[in-house]
Amino acid sequence: MNTKPILYSVEPFDLAGHRFRVTVTVAEPAKAGQIISLPAWIPGSYLIRDFARQIESISAKCGAQAVALTKTGNHSWRAAKCTGPLKITTIVYAWDLSVRGAHLDESHGFFNGTSLYLRIHGYEDAPCEVTLIAPPKRARWGVYTSLPESPKSRRAALRHGFGNYRAENYDALIDHPVEMGTPQVIKFNAWGAEHELVFTGVIPNLDLKRIRDDVKRICETQIRFFEPETSRAPFLDTASRYVFMTMVTGNDYGGLEHRASTALVASRKDLPTLGHDQAPEGYQTFLGLVSHEYFHTWNVKRIKPAAFAPYDLSRENHTRLLWIFEGFTSYYDDLMLLRSGVITRSEYLKILAKQISSVLATPGRHKQSVAESSFDAWTRYYKQDENSSNALISYYTKGSLIALGLDLTIRQATGDRCSLDDVMRSMWERYGREFYTGKPHGMTENGFAKIVRETTGVDISKEISQWAYGIHDVPLKALLQQQNIELSWKSSSTKPSIDVRTRKQGEQVVLATVLENGAAHAAGLSALDTLVALDGIRVDANSNTLDTLLIRYSPGERVTIHVFRRDELRAFDLTLAAPAQNECLLTDLNK
After folding, report:
1. Alpha carbon distance 478, 409 (integer Å)
2. What are the structural domains of the chain?
3. Least confident of 152-166, 212-226, 308-322
4. Which of 137, 450, 477, 539 could form a Cys-Cys staple with 531, CB 3.0–4.6 A?
């Protein structure tokens, strides 16, 4: 086995053209010809992304002599035989402003390792040295990453400096994204573990201290949740700190977890501003995102399904358990806001009610189980279209309700002696704590019910069969009632409905989704139809005429709706439906 490190360098050399130059040097390439590849997907986002499509050019040299490269697949190449160090150079186009790829311009640079670092086949376990090179004429730029500084670097003592960094192997190398630029930064310690909050973008008067104080409480609560005795953060085995990297834009949202960091994108309007005591309404949503991705530090980054232990980044890795790893995380993210004191019990119940409303408004839950949704993430969940609400269910949202249902079931069966908390800590003991320091192993596809029974003494196999592998709704009304919480429903609107979801497209109203078995479906309307008129009156998106027209009618009345389907004008007679009982209310009877 080769013990010499694989050497990488990353240079953001063309800011205006959004290009990184990346080199990798292999001291002792394979004698039969070195195979190299780029990952086809990134853990946490279950879709083949084909990152190699952004490689504009690739070349190889052995000393001063060019070495032929032959493409062997969508993401792989073979270098011709050579003796001595093999140096491969790629030019990577980086204009993906998301948490999954790479982005570079005159204001900042960001990349995930899966977009830049070639895998050297046969040397995945070799240590990796990375030299991050400063861009031209950007003397004030710094580096923000959880990737450890190399002990050999002269800049090792200089935090945030360009220079040399090190990973113990290729898997670790691609799990530490990098932000470079001049962001707004604030730090805190949570039970002795250093954390950094890094915000990139134009964000006037950002209230960093408020965010720091809230995120600190969330992190401390989660660390104590999994490690009540030691209060030890899991990433300290492989990194000296945890980094939250947030790209702030006008109206975006998302996150992607890593072993000692997370990449986030957030809307400017959701972040608190200095001088304003009242935080924006969307701030809770941002904190929920932070909580979700941080919880992944345990659940999915270390506690994994067996299908992910280890990842095969060249192809889809199928599992029916994403409802546990993403759904349970979606349950605990808001619950940790409550337990940390960041939100009140009343606020939590409102968030939970909104989640219940979302799931029960999805007709697809009657067709697809969350186990099927998990398995089909690669081809269906991440490739949604106008009919997805009628055909699919989210393993995030229904998975979170299954977690709630199981939590309440365990609590009631044991008289509150046990809960889903105990199950999560048991999973951490069995699968997570030693993940990056020992041989990885994950939960088998049929292993969850056994863990629950061994941990709590409760047999939840029937519930799992019905709620996760079947299409039964979780009986939350009965379960919550035993917690003295009343679940009821009301209509969010008083006007009759045509049972569609719409979107604005310029001045037009387009049918984004036609709900199955609803009024529009019965009348013959289709998704992507453009509304023209209702009973001869033009429908205008800017003046919201659809709503103002519908309020003049009663359920059961007939109306004529004109639409454009493609470039053809069509008319449909539609019977208006009663407004749906679509808004969940949770009332705390303990008050």
Report:
1. 10
2. 6-180 (2.60.40.3650), 186-314+325-357+396-450 (1.10.390.10), 500-575 (2.30.42.10)
3. 152-166
4. 539
